[in-house]
Predict the 3D structure of the following.
Amino acid sequence: MMAFWSILANFDLTYPSWKFFALFLPVLAVLWQLSPAKWRRMLLLAADMVFFWSFSGILVVFLLYSSLLSFGIGLWLKKVGQRTDLKRKIKGKLKKKILIAGILLLLMPLIGLKYMDFIGLNLVRLSHLFHVGFDWKILNLAVPVGISYFTLEGISYLTDVYRESIEAEDDFLSIFLFFSFFPKLLEGPITRYGELSETLNVAKPISGENLAKGYQRILWGLFKKLVIADHLAPAVDILFQGNVLDGSLSLAAGVFFVFQQYMDFSGSIDIVIGAAGIFGVKLNENFRQPFFAKNVSDFWRRWHITLGTWLKDYVFYPVSVSKGLMKLTKRVKQLFGQNVSRLLAPSAALFCVWLCNGLWHGPRWTYIAYGLYHFSWIFLENLFGDSFSRFYKFIKLSESSLALRIFRGIKLFLIVMVGEMIFRADSLSFGLTLIWQIFTNFHWKVLIDGLGLLGMDVWDYWTAAAGLIIVLIVSILKERGYSIREKLMACPVPVRFAFWYAAIFIVIVFGAYGSGYDAAGMIYAKF
Amino acid sequence: MGNRLKYILFIVGFLLLLSAFSYAVAPKHGEVYNITQVRMKMQALKAERPFSLDLLFSGDSESYRAFSPLQLWAEQGIPSYNLGASALRLCDCYEILCESGNSQSPKVVMLETDAIMAESGTHKDEEDILTNCVEDLFPIFHYHIFYKSYLPEAIRKKDLYWKDAHILKGFLVEKMVRPYFGPDYMAEDKRLSPIPESSLFYLNGIKDYCAKKRISLILVSAPSAATWNEGKHEAVAAWAKENDIPYLDLNLLTEELDLDWNEDTMDEGNHVNFSGSEKVTKYIGEYLRNNYALEDHRGDEDYEDWEINREKAGLYRI
């Protein structure tokens, strides 16, 4: 009996844990194959509940709340839309009110559980400023995993029903499956009901091809996460501990964290997409070689794609066409002319997008600053982008030349790195101090001496570096449209077997897990 | 070939490879805590001429900071090797000692006792039953970092331990002085410090191994003001008495050793420094000469390289 409870207590289902991909997924796959087709969705829901429960236990009620609310409001919107006794304008207004009420109700748990302390504490600071007596007792409420993801999914579902781009679902099981689908619960990608329901509700038997492709993708994700990100994790933790560092170590902190963050998040997404793919469910890609982007705007079309597109569809467009902004644009046009007014609407909407982006990551000023930092770059690009293009033309430098691409790559990396340093630092002032140190107090010797003190041995550095080179090569090939997997499929069986055996053993041997390593968490699971 | 057959073949092949890898990397005499250090120590020992050593020191960092084989050679002509390393647990010492039997046949083993009093668990989370089952079945998952013991020559040349491993025979020189100003740590202390169960298992294993190989086992506590105390002494002394094993606690002999905690420690009493090791090794050499029939190999043609190493090190005169 004790052993049973011990097994349960240690049933870690985070994506890089072997219990997730080598126990939970295979057991589910076998049960899936053995189940009659009509029971498969119930089986999937049971798996979702086990998965959710292993992280957040009884907080599953919030998942149920969001699902029930979206289901109910969706049906209400549909019903109002079908009414023939109301004029179109009144119907529109009523639907809008229902939508706003639905969105506010969906946001309530997220704000209440995740942001209340932040709001309260900042109100206290503000009250001190105005010498008003206000006190806030820290609540430290438990937050269910994935709440930031499934809340956005609920908003997108209601908005899409409101816009009539999808029809409201009248089967609650389908809605609940959409919200609770376990592979995407922890780190996304953020999905839309219209897209996911196409494959989620089909519940076809697992095909050999899906099984193989799914596990191949999982292996690639494990490689990124265990071989690269988790080797860098101890150094990043030490560098961001809060001590003011020499500029060279601050630069190392930034570079290491960019790589760790990218490999951790994109690796986890690979595992997620692979796991969903086994059951025939297609999830959207979240990354597309982001560091090959031309500029910051392009970077955000390639990095955390599903959050970017969500913000574009559900924040940028509604704000851009809002009545208030239209009026303001008109007024600005009268006062400052068309050039200024043309920039106002998209910039104001962009500002809202990036404020939301920062806030979505969590209740911290560093995240808000991170969002606004990226807003500033994109705003500047919108302002001066054409001038740069004209300048390159003037000096006869082709936009596709290698020199320009390298220059752009380095520039983009540095811009992203500075943003990530703000993002990772415990406070805004510490983040800015680290960045300041790079420019004012830089000594290579300190870096060379310090690398040995960052919790990584020489093998850890080599492993992470070799892993990054492999990812770079694969990224270049993908960017050029070359699919390694397809080429491999054309090879004889022994060659394929040898390749996959080698890949598996590289992860087993060089992964940062188990004895000698502290398990590193998944960065984006906390958002 | 049908798809189903292909998948079955792939999985069977994978399991076979897992088993083969596991066999190759798993310790041969039980479980270990620090596979990298164990393998590094075993690699270092392989550089020694087979069956040339009469004495082996075993233990954790207390051992390789205190007992200098080269000094023992210079003063007594006893060829020895220090198998101690930083943070080794008793399970690691046991594995290294058993493996050393493939290339050496020492007459005496001196086991430093600091490792005895430390936990000797093997880095596994006892609560995580499922993971432990998998790791027991396929030890590659537990010992997958075995490769870290292989370092390129360029790194070894700069590494504190490796650069002089063959010359100093596993001993580490540190001349820095950071005095110990604390109280008399061996003063009467009634605190019970039992030997941890996990260590007791391997301690008995070492005792049995030595008995089987007809090796004289001696327990020795290197001077350590920061880690040793009366309670630990009592526990080790009781075990030694019960098993009829000689036990030498140098913490009780600091006056005989002429050990000065203002001068002879590198880290405020945790380990002795070079000057402390000179006093400790001198005492150990005399103790061995008086109590064990260990041959003086100085002048022996087969041991010429020891003289060369002694001169290279430039630390000890005859």
User: Anything to note?
Assistant: The CA atoms of residues 192 and 231 of chain B lie 6 Å apart. Chain B touches chain A at residues 1, 3-4, 6-7, 9-10, 13-14, 17, 21, 35-36, 123-125, 127-131, 134-135, 140-145, 147-148, 151, 155 (CB under 8 Å). Strands of chain B lie at 55-58, 80-82, 108-112, 216-221, 247-249. The two ends of chain B are 75 Å apart (CA to CA).
